[in-house]
Amino acid sequence: MTIEFETPKPIAQTQFVLKTVAENMMRSQSREMDECEHEIPFGYIEFMHNAMRSIGGGSLAPKEEKPPKEGDEKKEKRPPIAYQNLAAQIEMLSWGDVGFYLVTPGGGLGAAAVQAAGSPEQRAKFLARFGEEKPTFAAMCMTEAGAGSDTSAIRTRAVLDEATNEWVINGEKIFVTAGDKSFKEYEQFGKGFIVVWASIDPTAGRAGMRAFVVEAGTPGVKVVGLEHKLGIRASDTATISLVDARVPFDNILGSPTVEKTTTGFKGAMATFDATRPLVAASGIGVARAALEYVKEQLAEQGVEIRYGLPRNKLTSIERDVIEMEIQLRSAWLMVLKAVWMADNKKPNALESSMSKVKAGDVVTKITQKAVEIMGPLGYSREFLLEKWFRDAKITDIYEGTGQINRLVVARQILGYSGKELR
After folding, report:
1. Which of 85, 242, 373, 384 has its CA 20 to 30 A from that of 366?
2. How many CA atoms lie within 13 A of 102 on its CB side?
3. What is the CATH number of domain 266-414?
4. CB 352 within 8 A of CB 277
5. Residue 297 φ then ψ, to 5°
6. What predicted TM-score, i.e. pTM, was given to this entire model?
7. Within a 10 A sphere around the Cβ of 211, how many other Cβ atoms?
8. Structural Rg of the chain based on CA atoms
9. Domain coordinates in residue numbering, the chain
């Protein structure tokens, strides 16, 4: 079997386009958007929506493969690259500015949840809007004040009102990435939605968990706060309250009945298996930006990295830079494996969490080391390096903290259940 590491042509072409955007639109506004937290960059959003529509699909989301047309059966089938392409796009946009990447229009985690747990009819209904004329957002609402990493402790409740055949949802969700743009009805945006995880039977534990698509503007649902953050300040992180929010019966993702053999929790985990490598790719983009900046500054000072020499003949800075490059490349290879498995419909829970753990460590260490090497220049707000240092840490926190993902990896390798290894 041949292993190819050459970037497929469609991915390389998209990367070229996005690098131009990253250099000329994102980097030039990075500082301003970091200083003006929660201001919405409508110009960037509209530009990127039109750009992504021209590329195909209108959002940063994996595209489902279309069935072959009549007469195409004899043509050589191309290997699937949807998630690989998406990882490359996210890495490049995050290299430009990770906060800007997080306000790029598209489905985000909300669309990923529909993709993972929704029926074909639901996917057609809710995902098609991301290719429409106006930019549209979606978000996933899982974390609660009393249920952070332990998602089985979720207290948000969904009860079926049989008289109206609607679900009535009550609860509060915190740390919802893009929750404001996904739920509030802005004139400039299309109709977004949030995916709310709730229990339809609290006595059933994780088996009672289900996801519900809640359309923007639904009565009883309100964005009650926005977080002020260390990094990714261009992106909104919302608190959303649901009080007697009524949702159509068909907006439940998965079965409305609770069975021991089928759990809604698996839908949540399938979402994370698909998206954790993409979060890792985002962190790698930030790490690459910091590393390249350091190398450029060293080159301007006449510092040459002498590859190929024994470590004992290298300077301390040379050893640091080479180690940063090694860690960055190894993290990217782990992402590539995880997204390749997703493209080929292979179970990737282990590889997904491993890539997330590795990227979270690597981006934190590389940006910290970059600040250390550059000294006062690295700490100064005159340059973006200190911002990348602040942006880096979120990679290790959202979509499952580093500690939780280490537990997932350990359970997968050792064959333990969640109850056996906590």
Report:
1. 85
2. 29
3. 1.20.140.10
4. yes
5. -65, -40
6. 0.92
7. 27
8. 22
9. 9-64+79-117, 134-260, 266-414
